Amino acid sequence: MSSSGIGAPAPRLASITFPRPVPGGAALADLLGTGDECAWIRFGEGLVGLGAAARFTTTGPDRFKAARRWWMAATAAEAADTARTAVPDAGLPRRSPLAFAAFAFADDSPVDSVLVVPEFVVGSAGGRSWLSWQVDLDAPEYAGRAAAGWRPDVEEAEERLSALLAASPRSRPGAAPALELSDGVISPDGYREAVARGLREIEAGTLTKLVLARDALVTGTVDVPRVLRTLTERYRDCWTYAVGGLIGSTPEMLVKVDGDSARARVLAGTLDRDGAPTGAEGADHARRHLAEDPKQRHEHRLAVDSLTERLAPFTTALDAPHEPFVLELPNVWHLATDVTARLVGADGARRTGPGALALTEVLHPTAAVCGTPRETAAALIHRLEAEDRGMDRGLYAGPVGWLDGNGNGEFGIALRGAVVEDEHTVRLYAGCGIVAASDPAAELAETTAKMRPMLQALGLRA
C-alpha cells in the first residue's frame, strides 16, 4: 500500500470492475469481519472496501483541495487507459477507481482527513453485485510488470481476493464484550453550561442558530464488526459508514452526485421516541411536536436554506419542497427535506462542473451541524467546545462517504457515530441545534437520544 500526505507523489491507480456475487454469497455487512474495512451501506446495498491500495492524509483549511488534487493525479493513469479497464458488463455502474473518504469538521482540527483506496471494492445495488480490483502501478509488486504493459485482469483479481480473505482474521459470533460508559471531555453539566452561553449569544443577536456537541467515552474490548453489522440491521434507512476508524450510521446526506444530478437529505428538528406513543398515536405525536412546532420548523428551515443557497450557483434546476416530512427512525423522529438538483457542466460521463468532492467542500458545514451565520457559528463552536472545554470534534460532523474517478460520489454527515481511538477506546459524539427557544436540559436529553444508536450497537443500551 502507498501512503502519502501533502507534497508526496500520488499513486498511479489502475482497476478492473466485473460482475461477481458477494464473496461467500453473503450480505455486504457480513464482509465486515476485521474492523479495518471501509463501508457505505443502506438497505443492505452499497459498497465495502477490503485491504488498501493507497492512502492519503491531510489537515487544515485546504484539506478538500489537497484531497481533490491527489485524487485527480491518482486516477490520471486510468483516465488515459480506459480501453483496458472498461467494465465488461455495461449494466454495471462505472465506479472505479473508487476511494472512501472522511474529513475533519473544522479547518483548524489537528485530526487527519483521509482518503482510502481499498484494494478491493465489493458493490451491490438493484439486485446486482460486482467487484473492483484496484492497484497502484508504482507499487514494488506491480511496477516491473506495469512498465511492460500489465494491467489488472479478472483471473488475478480472483486469486488476490481469495488470498486476502484467507489471511484476514474474522470476528466470531458470541456474547457482546463487557464495556463501560463514562463522561467525555464535555460532561453533561459542561454541556448545559455551553448551551446556556450559546443562548446568551443568540439573545444578543450575534447569531440565529448554533450547533453544540458533546462526547462520551466507551472503554473495553470493542467488537467493531459487530457494531457495524448491528447498525446496518437496526438503522437500514440510514447510511452505515466506516472509514479510517470513523464508524456510525448517519441519517443525513450532505450530497450525492450521479452524472448530472445531485441529491441531499437535510435533517434538523428532533423528537425522542423513547417513551413516546407508537403507531398512529406516535405519528400524530411527531406531527404535533415537530411539523407543527415553530421552534422545530425554524431550526429546520435554517438548515435547508444554508444548503440550497450554497448549492444553487452550481445547478440549472433545484427543488427543495417548502414543507418538510417527518422521518421516523428507531431512536428519534426528524424533520427532513429531500433536495434534488441538476448540475451545470455535466453531460453523461463527461464533467466540466464540480463533482462530489468539490460540492462537499462548498456545502460543508451546513447549518444542521454548525449554525447561522456559518462563520460566526463556527467561531463560537471553537470557543465553547475546543477553547473552553478542550474537545475537538475531529471527524465528527464532517463529510464521510465515497467518490469515484468520474466525479460521482456520496457524502453523508458523520453523525450517530463514533471514533475508534484504539482497540479499547471508542469516543461517541452527538450535538443539537440551539435556537432562541432552546432549553439546556432538553438539548442535553436530545444528545443522549442521538447517542442511542451507537450505545445499542455497542450493547450498552437496550
How many structurally independent domains?
A: 2
Helix proportion range:
25-40%
Rg from alpha-carbon coordinates: 22 Å
CATH superfamily of the largest domain: Anthranilate synthase
Which class do the helix and strand fractions yield? alpha+beta
CATH topology of the largest domain: Anthranilate synthase
Largest sheet: 12 strands, antiparallel
Corresponding CATH architecture of the largest domain:
4-Layer Sandwich
Task: Give the mean pLDDT.
Answer: 90
Work out the strand percent.
Answer: 25-35%
Low-confidence stretches: 83-88
CATH class type of the largest domain: Alpha Beta
- Rounded to the nearest angstrom, the distance between the terminal CA atoms is 40 Å
Overall 3D shape: globular
DSSP summary: helix tally: 11
Instruction: Compute the number of strand runs.
Output: 25
What does this protein structure show overall?
With 462 residues, the protein is an alpha+beta fold. The protein folds into 2 domains: 2-167, no CATH class; 184-238 and 250-457, Anthranilate synthase. The chain contains 11 helices and 25 strands. The protein has helices at 63-79, 82-85, 140-147, 154-167, 188-203, 224-234, 279-291, 294-311, 356-363, 374-387, 440-457, and strands at residues 2-4, 13-19, 38-42, 45-50, 54-58, 98-102, 113-117, 120-125, 128-136, 179-183, 209-220, 239-243, 246-250, 253-258, 261-272, 315-319, 325-328, 332-343, 346-347, 350-351, 371-372, 399-404, 409-413, 417-422, 425-434. The strands form 3 sheets. Strands 2, 3, 4, 8, 9, 10, 11, 12, 13, 21, 24 and 25 form a 12-stranded antiparallel beta sheet that branches. Strands 1, 5, 6, 7, 14, 15, 16, 17, 18, 22 and 23 form an 11-stranded mixed beta sheet that branches. A two-stranded antiparallel ribbon has the order 19-20. α6 packs across α11 (440-457). The radius of gyration is 22 Å and the shape is globular.
